[in-house]
Design a protein that fits this description.
With 233 residues, the protein is α+β, with helices and mostly antiparallel strands. Helix content is 53%, strand content 15%. It contains five helices and six strands. The longest helix is centred in the middle third of the chain and has 63 residues.
Length: 233
């Protein structure tokens, strides 16, 4: 085939085409993965070194991680009581001092609880006694009416007499005691003297007559008895 023009141009053009054809068959592949698929280690693109060149640095990092894991494991291990006691006499002394302090705190707390329980029981008993006294005081006027009816002969017999007797007996079970004795020495704590009369053959002030009965519950006087007192002449 005849050639036109310069032979060198045809030759260079042929080589360029052959080179382009060869380049098209072998593309350039760049691996930008941050982890080496062969070794499994991280790459360091900043330093420009491959994963194989960064062996000492990666080894130091792995050693640091191993130390941190070892310290974490050791911190999580519980030391037995026998080993902790055997660590020294100083530790034993401090433990004994702490045990003694805890024992003293326990004894003090127990004493406070016992005192609190006694105080609660005492307050409860006082509250119950005050409740009973309140009921008895409210019934004293009823008892006065019963006494007045008995003195006038209205409660000699019959159903009302039985009811009055039952009422008085029921109140006695709650500690109600009547103060109506005559011929005893005058006691200002349970007697209220309304009238004084000279008496014969007496040496001390004596209750000669009870005008209104008094009542007490235990050692507590609910109402003093109103009486006439005979005094020595």
């Amino acid at each position: 085939m005849p050639h036109h023009g310069n032979e060198e141009e045809h030759t260079s053009t042929g080589h360029d085409r052959a080179g382009q054809q060869g380049d098209s068959h072998e593309p350039v592949i760049r691996d930008n993965r941050k982890v080496d698929p062969v070794t499994g280690q991280a790459r360091h693109p900043e330093g420009g070194t491959s994963s194989h060149g960064a062996g000492p640095a990666s080894g130091a990092d792995s050693d640091g991680d191993a130390l941190a894991q070892a310290e974490e494991i050791l911190n999580g291990v519980e030391v037995p009581a026998e080993e902790s006691v055997a660590q020294g006499a100083a530790g034993t002394g401090s433990a004994n001092a702490e045990a003694a302090e805890l024992r003293n705190d326990l004894l003090r707390l127990q004493a406070e609880y016992v005192n609190y329980r006694k105080r609660v029981e005492r307050d409860r008993a006082v509250a119950g006694e005050m409740a009973v006294i309140g009921v008895l005081n409210s019934l004293l006027p009823v008892l006065d009416d019963v006494d007045a009816a008995r003195q006038h002969g209205d409660l000699a017999d019959g159903p009302f007499a039985a009811i009055a007797t039952k009422l008085e007996n029921a109140l006695k079970t709650y500690g109600l005691v009547r103060i109506d004795e005559t011929g005893v020495e005058f006691d200002p704590t349970i007697h209220e003297a309304l009238i004084q009369q000279p008496g014969e053959d007496i040496e001390v002030d004596t209750v000669s007559q009870v005008l209104r009965s008094g009542y007490k519950s235990g050692e507590r006087v609910l109402r003093a008895a109103q009486v006439i007192v005979a005094v020595p002449a």
